[in-house]
Write a structure and sequence with these properties.
The protein is of the alpha/beta class. It is about 35% helix and about 15% strand. The termini are far apart.
């Protein structure tokens, strides 16, 4: 009896909508006389087969009942009480329960003794749900009809299942085909779990903004849109042979009352109802939906204050006779206060069956409900033929589902190959991204993290666990920016508190406001708290820059105080991640409103915002670079190099993308353009090897103070035993600077080169002396490959080339690029020809053109993209690729050995005052040079980059003058920019 009292005291949202954060369900109702304690058991002494078997066949063998008596006409052999039990659907969970747990003993009794016809499953885990369903099917003499609330897919209840955004988000995409896709995917996953029915889609028209329980669960406020999207979901779900159930007939949208707490009343005459509330349900019937859920909703113009779930006029006359519906009718959860406030469990069951219901969902008391119906038949109040009609429909549905034959079975292997697979998750992601809707934008969106020094994130909600609920969005904001102050408000706030918050927010350069407006039973709220609205109004008056994102209900009290407003409609992980992507401009925003918010923001309205695709904008300032160009012209005239390519930017604005001269000195040589590709030589060290090391270090796969002997034990018994990764990065390992491996007849490949490096003698003790060494970088590249398990080429592509849109950056360029590549040297020693389109560095060539120290071909503009990421502190087009601390760590001068200018992998301007970077780069600057005549210098303090590419080794490396050109050129550019 204790459990009966608990059950009657706790009203759970079931067929209508499960709680947003499912709590452990109250016990399934048993016969009061049986009142089992947890230690009691209705099991026999025999061990539970589902717990003792480990093979798939044991898990599935019990699902199907093959008794020929139980086909779609076999119900006639049942007695009255058994037939009534087939009309009962009770709650189960997907949690683990030991064999003597009351949940298991109750279910064993219900299936073996009572003979209930179906179950609805909530919560737990995918594996637990599958296992429990199989067990309950084994116990049941007649196969159970298994249902679930999958409005948003199996992921609504189980981690690992595919989670879709709410219906409003679906309509915001403008693409009904996506609703079909959702329905099909949900059916595939449901079927593999052993679920046959989804209580979805919601076909209510949300034409009341104050609706506290339907809201974003509806497809919108336009009846035709609701019909279009809902019917496509039905088609997709039922295409897999399962049963879709539309709810909440005759329409739960035009009310501000939650049927879990009271009986909603929908006004309107028949003509108005036909055009709005009835339309989606009628079209669903015409479209072949197999089940309809009646809601606990009164329509006075149709049947007074009688709930639709008890109304003969609504269920039998309208739905059955007038519309011709031949499928199953199920009530909404009968434990809901919309019924229980006025009718006791037994009478409620009788009235529902009198109305025309086939399945009683979650009756308050199973025994009382069956008793009451049996007595109603025996007294003549209900005819037994009325019971027979429903049982015949139930058996037909079970036969159509294949539950009496092997065609309806589910296997564990099938489950693992279907639920939550990548293609399903990708579809959900696409829907979520396509749904994001911008209602207002003052130009702030998308936000640019590199332009915001101090970012505030204000979370306004009335849910205590609001931060946990929004975690994926919070993480998406903080991870991208890196310097976020959070302010979380979970209750109504006073004027004093509002002023305290304002004083904090005024210190921020930008604020993101997250509104979490959850829709779930018993909350009774469809918009933000009045005090939160007051705070937003005062934020605008205070001149605080903020963008607002709503998660859940899109409805607000007013919108004038918002300069920017974005709607995500849901607060599932898939929607939260899509919203973060939209805020930072990582995706295109195309969603449109599925509802009307006010006279300005109507159904179908939305502001399209393209994804960030431009790394730079064009500077509007006029810089006189004539002296800098004169330096290049003079170098060309003096045959220091035949041509040059330059990229200069400041604050994310292009000052100049410039090209001058020709690819060679030949009269017919092509002119250098901004698309000409250069062999950048040792810039490879900082374009590939250094950032790969940074990435591996950030992933804790490689520590810069780890000893090389960990990777090459040959170092342990020699003077090399103390060499660390840091030594390799700072060129202080003591390894020789260079060995001409390519001229050694015994060296043929990468393994030979590494062997020679490992066996070579040191020129100095580790850390004692700086000596620029290709050998150390080659060794570092091999270590990167070891710890990552990937090739250098793949690492370069994955971490650098693809992320930073370096479309003309490549190892070993294809012949099709040849005309765009500036030749380098006429090699008379090794390759005996003009080096054109192949790497200039001979050792890199020996290594197959793909080497850690040289081999990359690129353009100044491509290198500019990468450089801008570094200036941004690790972000690029709204996405974080490196944490700022790791960039700072690697670009800071190490003073190793004392007096060295080297950072980790990078160079810094010479401290002797004669740097090739010139005289104006700040002390925090970093860069690198390439032997072929290339250079890149980055000043993160002044947010300036200068990329200079030449082929000064053409036609021979035996030429001087490049140092002077670099120094004078950088000086003149900086003087012009910093004037």
């Amino acid at each position: 009896m204790r459990r009966i009292t608990i059950l009657m005291a706790i009203v759970l949202l079931t067929g209508c909508q499960p709680p947003a954060n499912p709590v452990p369900e109250p016990p399934i109702q048993t016969k009061p006389s049986e009142g089992l304690m947890e230690t009691d058991s209705l099991f026999t002494d025999k061990a539970n087969p589902i717990l003792s078997q480990n093979n798939d066949s044991a898990l599935v063998s019990s699902v199907i009942t093959t008794d020929p008596a139980f086909d779609n006409s076999g119900w006639e052999s049942l007695n009255l009480r058994e037939k009534i039990a087939q009309m009962i659907m009770v709650r189960i969970r997907g949690d683990y329960f030991h064999e003597k747990h009351w949940m298991m003993t109750d279910m064993k009794y219900f299936t073996e003794n009572t003979g209930i016809g179906g179950v609805i499953i909530f919560g737990g885990s995918i594996h637990g749900a599958y296992s429990n369903i199989q067990q309950y099917q084994k116990w049941s003499k007649i196969p159970l009809l298994v249902a679930a609330d999958y409005e948003r897919g199996t992921g609504q209840w189980f981690d690992g299942g595919t989670l879709f955004p709410p219906n409003m988000a679906m309509t915001a995409t403008g693409n009904p085909q996506l609703a079909f896709d959702q329905g099909k995917i949900t059916a595939l996953e449901a079927k593999s779990l052993g679920v046959h029915v989804t209580f979805a889609p919601v076909m209510d028209v949300n034409n009341n903004p104050n609706n506290p329980i339907i809201n974003f669960r509806s497809y919108g406020d336009n009846p035709q849109q609701v019909s279009d999207f809902g019917n496509r979901f039905i088609e997709g779900f039922q295409s897999q042979g399962l049963i879709a159930c539309v709810k909440h007939f005759p329409g739960h949208g035009n009310t501000s009352v939650d049927s879990h707490s009271s009986l909603p009343v929908i006004s309107g005459n028949r003509d108005a109802l036909n055009k709005v509330e009835f339309l989606p349900f009628k079209t669903a019937v015409e479209n072949g939906v197999k089940m309809v859920m009646t809601g606990h909703i009164a329509l006075p113009e149709i049947d007074g204050n009688v709930p639709a779930s008890h109304s003969f006029k609504m269920t039998s006359e309208l739905l059955r006779e007038e519309w011709g519906f031949q499928g199953l009718v199920v009530t909404d959860g009968m434990e809901m206060a919309g019924l229980t406030k006025s009718v006791w469990a037994g009478e409620s069951a009788v009235r529902a069956v009198e109305a025309g219901t086939d399945i009683l969902l979650l009756p308050m008391n199973v025994k009382q409900s069956i008793d009451a119906l049996e007595q109603a038949v025996q007294s003549g109040r209900i005819s037994e033929s009325r019971i027979d009609e429903s049982v015949a429909r139930i058996f037909k549905a079970k036969k159509d589902l294949g539950l009496f034959t092997n065609s309806g079975k589910s296997t564990f292997k099938n489950l693992e190959s279907i639920v939550g697979i990548k293609s399903h998750m990708d579809k959900a992601k696409k829907i979520a991204r396509s749904s994001i809707t911008v209602v207002k934008n003052d130009g702030s969106l998308p936000l640019k993290p590199e332009k915001i020094e101090k970012l505030g994130h204000l979370i306004l909600t009335t849910d205590d666990n609001g931060k946990d609920k929004l975690y994926p969005f919070i993480r998406g904001i903080s991870q991208t920016h890196g310097n976020v102050s959070e302010y979380i408000i979970t209750e109504a706030i006073s004027d004093i508190r509002i002023n305290e918050i304002l004083s904090q927010l005024k210190k921020m350069d930008q604020v993101i406001v997250s509104l979490l407006i959850r829709i779930h039973m018993g909350k009774g709220r469809s918009t933000i708290d009045d005090s939160h609205d007051k705070l937003l109004t005062k934020m605008k008056a205070a001149g605080i820059k903020f963008v607002t994102v709503s998660f859940g209900s899109p409805y607000l009290k007013h919108y004038d105080h918002l300069a920017t407003y974005m709607c995500a409609y849901g607060y599932g992980t898939v929607s939260l991640k899509a919203a973060a992507d939209a805020v930072w401009g990582r995706i295109q925003v195309t969603g449109t409103l599925p509802v009307t918010l006010n006279k300005y923001f109507t159904n179908g309205y939305g502001i399209e915002i393209p994804a960030r695709s431009k790394v730079f904008t064009k500077s509007t300032d006029n810089y006189d670079l004539s002296k800098a160009w004169a330096v290049l012209d003079s170098a060309i005239e003096n045959r220091i190099f035949p041509g040059a390519q330059v990229f200069i930017a400041k604050d994310g604005q292009i000052i100049s993308s410039y090209a001058v001269g020709h690819q060679t000195y030949a009269e017919n040589s092509q002119k250098v353009t901004t698309s000409t590709i250069y062999d950048v030589a040792s810039l490879t060290k900082v374009l590939v090897t250094t950032p790969v090391t940074m990435k591996l270090s950030a992933k804790n796969l490689l520590g810069i103070d780890q000893k090389v002997s960990q990777f090459y034990p040959e170092f342990l018994d020699s003077e090399k035993k103390d060499i660390t990764i840091r030594h390799l990065l700072t060129h202080s390992s003591g390894l020789k600077p260079y060995i001409r491996f390519f001229l050694d007849e015994d060296i043929h490949d990468r393994d030979d080169v590494l062997r020679e490096i490992i066996n070579s003698d040191l020129e100095s003790k580790p850390g004692e002396k700086y000596a620029y060494s290709d050998l150390g970088v080659i060794l570092l590249g091999s270590i990167n490959e070891k710890v990552s398990g990937s090739s250098l080429k793949n690492l370069a592509s994955r971490y650098i080339i693809k992320p930073f849109k370096m479309d003309r950056t490549i190892y070993n360029p294809k012949n099709s690029f040849l005309k765009d590549i500036a030749p380098t040297e006429i090699d008379e020693t090794y390759r005996k020809k003009l080096v054109h389109g192949i790497v200039h560095d001979e050792n890199a060539f020996l290594l197959g053109g793909i080497a850690p120290h040289a081999g990359i071909f690129s353009t100044a503009e491509n290198i500019g993209n990468y450089s801008q990421m570094l200036i941004n502190g690790g972000t690029f087009l709204g996405k974080r690729y490196f944490d700022k601390y790791i960039i700072d760590k690697f670009t800071t001068r190490q003073n190793m050995p004392s007096g060295s200018d080297r950072a980790l992998g990078w160079d810094t301007p010479s401290q002797n005052g004669n740097s090739s970077a010139g005289d104006y780069f700040s002390p925090s600057s970093f860069g690198h040079l390439g032997f072929t005549g290339t250079s890149m210098w980055i000043d993160p303090e002044q947010k300036i980059m200068i990329i200079l590419l030449t082929n000064r080794v053409h036609p021979t490396r035996e030429r001087g003058g490049i140092y002077s050109v670099r120094r004078r050129f950088h000086t003149e550019v900086m003087k012009s920019i910093l004037k």
